[in-house]
Amino acid sequence: MDSPSSSTTGDMSKVATKSSSSSMIVESLRVCGISGSTRVDKEDLTQKLRMPQYLRFAMRESIRLNDAAAGKSHCSRSQDDDNAEAPLVPMVVFINPRSGGRCGPFLKERLQLIISEEQVIDMLDVKPHEFIRYGLGCLEMMANYGDHCALETRDRMRIMVAGGDGSVGWVLGCLSELHSLGRTPVPPVGIIPLGTGNDLSRSFGWGGSFPFSWKAATKRSLYKATIAPLCRLDSWRFSISMPEGTEIEPPHSLKHAVEFTLDEGLDIEGQLSNNVICYEGVFYNYFSIGTFSFYVS
């Protein structure tokens, strides 16, 4: 779905904001119908999702050492690795274990059992941009050195996010930087709804909450991600400025901006301070400021 061509502007409490629409280059997985009684074979699912061990270990080392080149030099390959083939749908899952009440840590263990420990990223330990810079960077570097398995794994990769809208938006925002850097294809993203706000998950058919029968649901969610069609996800870039010295706790989706340019037609209440602090970010479907929420359809 293409983004709207119009832009929206607004102001609130002498805070100038600017919102501009742009086509989202991160694709999302729209879930397709699968009966809750459908049996998903665990071994077959694991075979479709699990990357070869040498690739998993190389990516893990690159992330641990914050060096995309480190993985290749730290992980030796056997003759079996030379003949390794990329899985049909290599999957990486980002999980916020604090989401989902008591289910978060147990779901993490369940995902690690089905896929692999290295392919399940705890967002409290490894930030999405660290995985993209070092883990995905390691895979791309190995592909550039002629590793055909690494190349196919990179091209086929899909990502799931187990968390709420905040976690999903954080991952999507980091992935969007891949396109600007020419690091394509950008892996599509699916959702396991664990948060209290799961609007993105609802809008793409993944449901508003994770079911109580979460063990079986985990396999079904991963299976859905292997067959789900790709859909474009609209996004809007949001900018905000405020007087310098204002104390705020910005969410992950808002990053400090060096420069900030106001639209000429923007109506601003009161006098705008000469010294301002600026933040920019991307939102999907809606954003909120204090008690005000703005929905975009």
UniProtKB/TrEMBL annotation:
It comes from the Eukaryota. Pfam families: DAGK_cat. GO terms for molecular function: ATP-dependent diacylglycerol kinase activity. GO terms for biological process: signal transduction. Transmembrane segments: none annotated. One of its GO terms (cellular component) is membrane. This is DAGKc domain-containing protein.
